[in-house]
Structure formats: structure tokens, C-alpha cells
Amino acid sequence: MLACVFNQEMLLADRRQRAHRLRWLYAGFVIVQVLPLFFSPDSFNEWLSGNGFSDFFERFIILHFGLIALLTPAMVAGAITDEKTSGTLQYLLTAYLSPWEIVLGKLLARISQLVLMSLAGLPLISLFSGFGGVGELPLALLLLSLALIFGVAAISILASVWCRLTRDAMLAVYLLGLVFFAVLALTTWPRFVALGDRLLPLRALTLEHGRLNWQHVGACLLTWSVLGVCCLAVASLRLRGAYLRQLRAVPRLTSRWLPAWRPRMRANPVLWRERHVVGLAPLPWLRRWPRWLGCVLVAALTFGSLAWALQQILPAGVNLLGQIRQGRWLELRGALRAAPTSGDAFYWHGLAALLAASLVVAVRASGCITEEREQATWQALLQTPMTTRTILRGKQWGILGACVPYLVSFAVVALAAGFYVGAIAAAWTVLWLAATIFAGLFAAAVGIWCSARMQNSWLSLLATVGLCYGSWIAMTGPVAVGAWFLQGMLGILAEFFDWLFGLG
Question: What is the C-alpha to C-alpha distance for residues 360 and 212, in angstroms, rounded to an integer?
Fold first, then answer.
């Protein structure tokens, strides 16, 4: 019966042509990576001599494993949640199928599609590994890719068992990975660092004296395999129980462990619900946390990231946190103002905050209508006396209103640090805050538009993120040309007034 589930998944994948498009996109990515070598004769000569292999290998492997880690949850997280949304999982559970056959059949079908996609880069690695003198590299790359796909796919299918919607399962996996890498980058605990070394395929592929260390490769394979088997076992054991609990929709007996205050509902109930009931959290379990605690976390994260960024530009003997604990504010201010790149730290910090805020708003807005459809409440909402314009405006301004407390928490810490450091830092902070507001407006509008047009929350999320950041990338060229033209016009005007009035 395992083959029946596998064949059905492969048949659906063949009809949707999703894996076929991914293979072509990945092949195009590989071609883009190798094209500069043929357009630059010097680079190709370095290849022939074996000197350029390590740089190309490192860049290609980083992008290869990064794409696998990003695409695997998107391909696997809907394996169970799609059945829940369409109402067919109950028929699978009542058929002559055990839970482990359902989970394993769907997992193997999704993994096979990802493996076929990742094989597009294997001929390139096999070709150029000969130039680098590392003949066993293609085998190690293939084994580590299989282990990474299996591990991440097992985590994704476990999230698909526990979550109701595909979007929630995808976001849960991405959030878990982001937290893991953030803790790995900040912690110095030896056991956690050793676990990170075992989980990162890039460290396993590090060449030692021009050769691979198969002991590191084997440790990485074993770690991902054990993690995948454990997640697969838990998903098989909890499939029936988790789905029955979701069908019953039993409310929680315990109330909020922290109090939350909500104002009285005003003219637009949709705006009030989106702002004060649903909030900004994209996942249901995050919505049980009070808003004031989220504001405290945002302020703490802003302070910590700014402290880390400013510590990088200080001299080697100056400790920022030590100066703050000792109350040496004037000495610290002088050291920060003397640093030539203090404004750059606030520039990049503001840009990172804009990208993070726009991503959260886009993810939240991408499901505001598709969730109503999937929960069968959208038709009831359309039958109310409110017009469609009122409903959509209520959702947009409700999402943006939910962002205001978090934006204020970020702005208070960032502006205080900017004015403390200097005028350039404060100017960059103010400019990026204004740009964040407009980016949030744009991301909310795109998310609502995609949510109204797409069939489910998963497609709406992908379309929203692609349109938001794709349009920004596409506008980079025209904006750069406009800025260059404006700079030239201002330069001509400056020279004219200098010649006319002698202003210098």
C-alpha cells in the first residue's frame, strides 16, 4: 500500500508540473554560475591550472545547500495539510493504510522530486572537480544533499502533521531554522557548537590539504539521518491523533498565562479583528502571546543587534557593554563618533529592519483572505452589510495598525542610539523608518491582492514574497539611472551657482 500513496503523489506532481519547473529553474541557476568563467579567459585559465576551483566550489556549494534548505519546506510542508484542507485525509485514514505508510509514501514522493532537481548541478561538479583534483567530491556532495533533503523534509512533514494550513507549516519550519542559526551564531556553548558543526554540510565538505575528510562527512550524514528518522517516527505516531484533535476543535481549557487588553470595537469590525484579535503574528500559537511582550522582545532585539553592530566598528580594546555597565557614556560616545563607519552601521541596521518588517507584513497579509476561504468564513463575511471596499480596507489598515506598537518599540531604541552616536546615524535611522512605513504599505497591498487571487495560502505566500522583492529588484535599475541623472543635474546646478556667485 506504500506504493499506492507514492504513485498517487507522483501522478499529482506530474500533472501540476511544479517539479519540472523547479528543475529548469535550478538548471538555469547552474548555468548562471558557470557563464562568467567562459566570458573571462583569465578565470578559465585559472580553472585549467586548478587555482580557481576552491572559490567557485565554495560559492556554488553555499547557494546549492541554501536553495535546498529553502525549497524543501515549500515542497514538503503541504503533504498532509493539503489533504486536511481538501477534506480527503479522513478517507486516507479510513482506508487500508497505516499512518506510517501515508507519511512515508508522501515523504518519498516529495524527496524524489527534490533529488531530481538537485541532480542538475552534479555534472558541473563532476566536471570541475577533476580540475581541482578532488575526485570524490561529487559523491560526497550527492550524499550530503540526500541527507539534508531527508532531514529537512522529515521536519517539514512533522510540521505538516501538527499544523492546519500549509502556510503555517512552512513558516514554522523557517522560523525554527532561523532561530537555530541565530543561536548557533551567538552561542559559545561547546556542545551546541559541536552539534552545529555536525548539521552544517558546508563544514563537512571543508578540504584538508586538498582532500575531503570522510569522518566529518559521515558525522553529518548520521546526524541528519537520525534527526529525519526521529521526526518521521513522531509524524507517523501523531498523524491520527493530531487530525482528530483538529477535527474536534476542542477549545483550550486554560486561559492566557499573561493578560491581554483589547479596546472596544468601533465602526469597522474587520479592522478591529485584524488589529486586536489576529494581530501581526502569522502563526496561531504566536497569537496567544500578549502584544506588550512582543514589543519588549522587539526592543531587546533592536538593542542587541545595534550593540553587536556598533561593537564591530569600535577599536579592539573597547568593550561596548562593559562601557555601558561602568557608566562611561561620554567615553563611549567619543569612541563611536571617532569611528569612521558609525553611520554605515546604522545604514545596514535600518535596511535589515526594513526587510524584516516588510517580510512580516507580507506574510501576514498573504493569508488574510485565503484563511477566511479555508475556514469557510469568507462567504459569510461577504454577506454582511459591509462593502467589499470596507472589508479590504479594514484588513489592510488592521494589519498596518497591528504593526504600530512594534514599530514604535523599534523606533524608540534606534532613534535614541542614533542621536547618541551622531547626526549621520540619526539621519539614517529617520530615513529608514520612513522607508519602512512605505514598504509596509506596499507589502500589505500586494499581500491582500495575492490573497484575493490565489487559491490557497501557500500559493499566496509565494506570490506575495516573489512580487514584493522581485519588484524591488526590478526597480533597482531604473532607480539607479534616475539617481545618476539627478546627481548630474544637481552637480550642474552647483557648478552654475558657484560660477555665478562664487560660493565655492
Answer: 40
Chain centroid to CA 314: how far? 30
Angstrom distance (rounded) from CA 444 to CA 42 = 47
How far is CA 219 from each of CA 117, 139, 151, 188, 288, rounded to the nearest angstrom?
25, 15, 14, 21, 39
- Angle at the Cα of 199 from the Cα atoms of 193 and 204, rounded to 5 degrees: 95
Beta pairing class for 211-212 and 207-208: antiparallel
Q: Tell me, what DSSP letter sits at residue 187?
A: -
- Give me the phi and psi of 377, to 5 degrees please: -115, -5
Distance CA 168, CA 162 (A): 10
Helix (H) / strand (E) containing 208: strand 207-208
Burial class (CB in 10 A: 0-12, 13-18, 19+), 167: buried
What pLDDT does residue 43 have? 52
Nearest-angstrom CA–CA distance, 83 and 480: 47
For residue 5, give every residue at least 6 positions away whose Cβ sits within 8 Å of its Cβ, in sequence order, or none: 92, 97, 101, 102, 104, 105, 106, 109
The per-residue pLDDT for range 123-155, each reduced to its tens digit, is 777 766 665 566 677 788 888 888 999 999 999
How many residues does this entry show for the chain? 504
* pLDDT, tens digit, 9 for 90 and up, residues 342-399: 788 888 889 989 998 998 899 889 888 888 887 778 888 888 888 888 999 999 999 9
Longest dimension (CA), the chain: 91
Which among 263, 406, 429 has a CA at the least distance from the CA of 349? Answer: 429
Return the C-alpha cell found at 125.
Answer: 561538479
- Please list, in sequence order, all residues whose beta carbon lies within 8 angstroms of the beta carbon of residue 116, skipping any fewer than 6 positions away: 19, 23
Residue in this structure with the C-alpha cell 525549497, named with its chain if needed: 71
Looking up cell 565538505 gives: 205
**Coil/strand/helix, residue 211:** strand
- Mapping DSSP to helix (H, G, I), strand (E, B) and coil, where does residue 135 land? coil
Cell of 239: 498523524
Please state, in angstroms and rounded to a whole number, the distance separating the CA atoms of residues 222 and 240: 29
